[in-house]
Amino acid sequence: MYKDKTVCVVVPAYNEEKLIGSVLESLPKYVDKVVVVDDHSRDKTAEVVNSCKRTLGEHLVLISHGKNQGVGGAIATGYKWAQDNNFDVAVVMAGDGQMDPDDLPAILDPVVEDNADYSKGNRLFTGEAYEKIPKTRYFGNAVLSLFTKIVSGYWHVADSQAGYTAINKKALHVINWDDMYKRYGQPNDLLVRLNVYNFRVQDVPVRPVYNIGERSGISVPKVSFTMSWLLLRLFVWRLGQKYVIRDFHPLVFFYLMGFALAPCGFLFGLYLVCLRILYHPVSATSALFAAFLFITGLQSLFFAMWFDMEYNKELK
Description:
The protein has helices spanning 20-25, 45-56, 70-84, 104-112, 129-132, 135-152, 169-174, 186-196, 220-245, 251-278, 284-311, and strands at 7-13, 33-38, 60-64, 89-92, 118-122, 165-168, 201-205. The chain is of the alpha/beta class. It folds into 2 domains: 7-243, Alpha-Beta Complex (Spore Coat Polysaccharide Biosynthesis Protein SpsA, Chain A); 249-311. Helix 6 (135-152) packs parallel to helix 9 and helix 10 (251-278) packs antiparallel against helix 11 (284-311). The two termini are 25 Å apart.
């Protein structure tokens, strides 16, 4: 137990035979249960985990998927196990050794002390991040974090893709884990779901760990497309659930007006520029109208974001 709270660590693992053993051996003794979810690995991950049972005994549980479900699916399986066994806190630590066990108390404290319902690591707080994180992933993470602020409503949260997290019993029992996104966008999906239910989220500085033998199977072009579509769907879903169905807020109208007017103004302005270059001068009133549409649209979007930020400022 940690400060009188039972702790379950969920370890999603896919082809982690080289690192999973060291991850399990490094976990602190106050962890009550470790649930490794083998996501249909093609290597000896399950065998390595079973060999660790000699030292960890009943504290270690192995769940094997019959088919690969993605990291989000593996985490959902672990969460449901922690939910069914009534744990106070469920922590997610990857099986590739990229999450430092020394940071675990900092991740647990906000949840255990009831300052947050969900805490997550933030690797970007430290000065080491730019030096240690591969540059493509660093900038990709920064861009995704920016858009996730808008999509999720948690404007204070950064490093949205960090998977080192802790969640309390209340949130664990409210979220429908079967509906959570199963692949790379799972952290973004979960933040949106937490926001709809007004759960408090807190960022915690953690040490970035890289170049220890981990492998990344992320395809940047593929992820860029799927994540863009996922974030758009999550954004629309959150606005409908939070500001239309469960409550009402006029920011919905500001977003609608912004998304309608800004593109219209931009496209009309682009048309006028092409007309001016290729054919003949355009009237001043047409140019002013295009500017009016575009500026009004941008202002509406900024007002909507500001309203959203104010509405959610207590959730930290």
